């Protein structure tokens, strides 16, 4: 197959995210015109993690593009649990802040679960609060984790049937794997969740109609591990010598896939676009 034909197999996350952001931008304008409300997002960053700083910058640039007010709350590495909780409580009480995003990972001396639970579920832009996760499990999807929601949006935009299909998820994190499984079950897929303790991973991945991989293991999924026509979402990211790689051996797997997300430019931009959508939703719900 000629190289240029592979482009038609790529799920274009950047184009899709632009579409979502444009919808959010119009929604922000409408909300301001009708109710005088400008959606506000507060990001809490504790410490000096370089990757976290980069992610926060990307999120705030997206806020600028769609007209959302964004605030940085940078706290030093030495921040105590009490100080972090106080900052969250303060942001919970502010009427001009509709979304709160606690950038993970936190420094090791801080308890991320306690901090996440302290965020008002109505302002939980990332969708990680147990209340919102619980609603997801019973099929009431409101503010849900942004990355799996981005995958669902891509499935919808590309008219990929989910009902009755075998969806295989590799990685069972709270951020991607578990909520992804719930969202696919909610849409009547048959779901297998694999992880580091799964025996014979290839047996599962070979049977996947839809494959979602989020492990952070470079090129874990090889061409011989997937069947012809599979739809693949590569959520993993590994950096080596300044270059970024996904969990899927893209150059070889693309030959068998019907659709596949590249890394970068696939799931990442969609995640940020969904975050913008969540902040708008939270502001509308006030």
How would you describe what is shown here?
This protein has 10 helices and 10 strands. With 286 residues, the protein is α/β, with parallel strands linked by helices. It has 2 domains: 87 residues, Leucine Dehydrogenase, chain A, domain 1 (Rossmann fold, 3-Layer(aba) Sandwich), CATH 3.40.50.10860; 122 residues, Rossmann fold, CATH 3.40.50. A hairpin with a 2-residue loop joins β8 and β9. α1 packs parallel to α10, α2 crosses α10 and α6 packs across α7. The longest helix is centred in the N-terminal third of the chain and has 23 residues. The chain is globular, with a radius of gyration of 19 Å. It starts with 12 loop residues before the first helix and ends with a helix. 42% of the residues are buried.
């Amino acid at each position: 197959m000629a190289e240029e034909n592979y482009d038609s197999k790529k799920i274009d996350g950047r184009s899709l995210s632009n579409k979502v952001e444009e919808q959010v931008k119009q929604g922000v304008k409408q909300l301001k015109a009708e109710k005088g409300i400008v959606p506000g997002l507060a990001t809490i960053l504790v410490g000096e993690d370089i990757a976290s700083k980069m992610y926060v910058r990307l999120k705030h640039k997206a806020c600028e593009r769609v007209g959302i007010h964004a605030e940085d709350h940078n706290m030093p590495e030495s921040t105590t649990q009490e100080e972090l909780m106080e900052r969250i409580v303060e942001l919970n009480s502010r009427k001009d802040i509709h979304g709160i995003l606690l950038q993970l990972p936190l420094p090791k001396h801080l308890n991320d679960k306690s901090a996440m639970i302290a965020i008002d579920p109505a302002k939980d832009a990332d969708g990680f609060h147990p209340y919102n996760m619980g609603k997801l499990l019973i099929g009431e999807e409101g503010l849900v984790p942004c990355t799996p929601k981005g995958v669902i949006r891509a499935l919808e935009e590309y008219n990929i049937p989910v009902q009755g299909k075998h969806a295989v998820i590799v990685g069972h994190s709270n951020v991607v794997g578990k909520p992804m499984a719930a969202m696919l079950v909610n849409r009547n897929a048959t779901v297998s969740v694999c992880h580091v303790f799964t025996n014979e991973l290839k047996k599962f991945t070979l049977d996947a109609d839809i494959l979602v991989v989020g492990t952070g293991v470079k090129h874990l999924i090889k061409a011989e591990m997937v069947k012809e026509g599979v739809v693949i979402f590569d959520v993993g990211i590994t950096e080596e010598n300044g270059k970024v790689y996904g969990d899927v051996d893209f150059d070889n797997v693309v030959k068998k896939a019907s659709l596949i997300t590249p890394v970068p430019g696939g799931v990442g931009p969609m995640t940020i676009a969904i975050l913008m959508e969540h902040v708008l939703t939270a502001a509308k719900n006030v």
